[in-house]
C-alpha cells in the first residue's frame, strides 16, 4: 500500500514538472513572439519615419527651388525689364520738352526704340526660361532635340538621343518635367562630370516608358546619400515621383553615371 502511494506521488510530481516545463516553454514562446513582433513593428515604424523624413526633404527642396526661381525671375524682371522701361518712360517725357531741335528728338526716339527692343528681347528670354516655347509648339521630342543640339553646339560634349516613345499622345503638362530632368542631368554631366560623351535613350518596355541616361564623366559615389541631397537631384526625384515613376542611379568615381527611370 505504501509503495503504491509513493508511486502515485512520484507520478504526480513528474506530471507537475512536465506541466511546469510546458507552461514555462509556452511563456518563453509567448515572450519571444511578443518581443520579436515588437521589434518588427519598431523596424516598420523606423522605416516609415525615414520615408516621411525623406518626403519632407523632397518637399522642402521643391519649396526652396520655387523660392530661388521666384527670386531669379524677380531679379530678371527688375534688372532687365523694369529698369529699361523706366528709362523709356523718362525719355518719353523728355520728348514733351518744348523747343527740342531735330537732332535731340532723333536721339531720344532712337533711345526709346533701342531700349524697348532690349526690354522685348529680355521678356522673351525670361518667358523662354520659364516654359520653353518649343515644348508648347512642337512637343517634347522636338524640345529634347533642341536641348541636345544646344549642348552639342558647345563642342565640349557629344550627346546622342534616341527615342521610340510617341510623346504626342503623352500629356502635355508632363513634358516640362521630363525636359527639366534631362536639363539637370546634362548640366550635372558637364559641370561635375566633365563628360565628353552622353547618351539619352527613351524606350517602352512592357507598357512602361523608360529613360536611360549615361555619361562618361568622372562619376561620383552614388551610394553616398549626401550626393543625393543636392537640390538638383532632389528635384529630379520629386519630378519622377510626380510622374509616378521610379529611378536608379549608378555611379562610381571614374566610371561615369548611369541613370534609369520609368514614367507614366
Ligand atoms: N553626372 C555627374 N557626374 C559627377 N558627379 C555628379 C554628377 N551628377 C551629380 N553629381 C554629384 O552629385 C552632387 C549632387 O548633384 P545635384 O545636382 O543635386 O547638386 P549640384 O549640381 O551640386 O547643385 P544644383 O544642382 O542645386 O545647382 C553634385 O554636387 C556632384 O558631386
Ligand atoms: Mg545639379
TrEMBL record:
Gene3D superfamilies given in the database record: 1.20.5.1930, Histidine kinase-like ATPase, C-terminal domain (3.30.565.10)
- Can you tell me where the transmembrane regions are? 12-35
SUPFAM superfamilies reported for this sequence: ATPase domain of HSP90 chaperone/DNA topoisomerase II/histidine kinase
Q: Which CDD domains match?
A: HATPase_UhpB-NarQ-NarX-like (cd16917)
**PROSITE patterns linked to this entry:** HIS_KIN (PS50109)
Q: Which reaction does it catalyse?
A: ATP + protein L-histidine = ADP + protein N-phospho-L-histidine
Annotated Histidine kinase domain residues? 76-264
PANTHER family in alphabetical order? NITRATE/NITRITE SENSOR PROTEIN NARX-RELATED, NITRATE_NITRITE SENSOR PROTEIN NARQ
Name listed for the protein in its UniProt record: histidine kinase
